[in-house]
What does this fold into?
Amino acid sequence: MRVILQRVNKASVFVDNQQFSSIEKGILILLGVEDKDGVEDINWMVKKICNLRIFNDIEGVMNKSVIDINGEILVVSQFTLHASTKKGNRPSYIRAAKSSYAKKIYLEFISSISNFIKKETRCGSFGKDMVVKIENDGPVTITIDSKNKE
It folds into this structure.
């Protein structure tokens, strides 16, 4: 499981020119799932993301988590995070999970985050063409891969 997370002042997802979901201050998570991902990856990733101290304290030091600031989370599926660009100029997505499995993991991930932070997690529309609008805060952008825990 691979994510790119961005600290945002606000973020929203549009499908067919209609707003599908949005958040205010918090984290936008782009989530890529591969076939090897499971419950262990979800649990590790959720704990890591929700406790990550990427928000400023009163002294301007990144010392607070999304939970500490009562922030919101928006998760958007992003199979292209598993793109391989080793050969040629057309990315290969062979490592990305098939749609049915990826959707199952995606939904479990969203549910796990909601349970962890004890508030609703917003999401994109799985498998749809989306427009994601963000207002970065910082900017702070971090990549995390559950296969690289050490």
The chain has two helices and eight strands. The domain at 2-145 is CATH 3.50.80.10 (D-tyrosyl-trna(Tyr) Deacylase; Chain: A;).
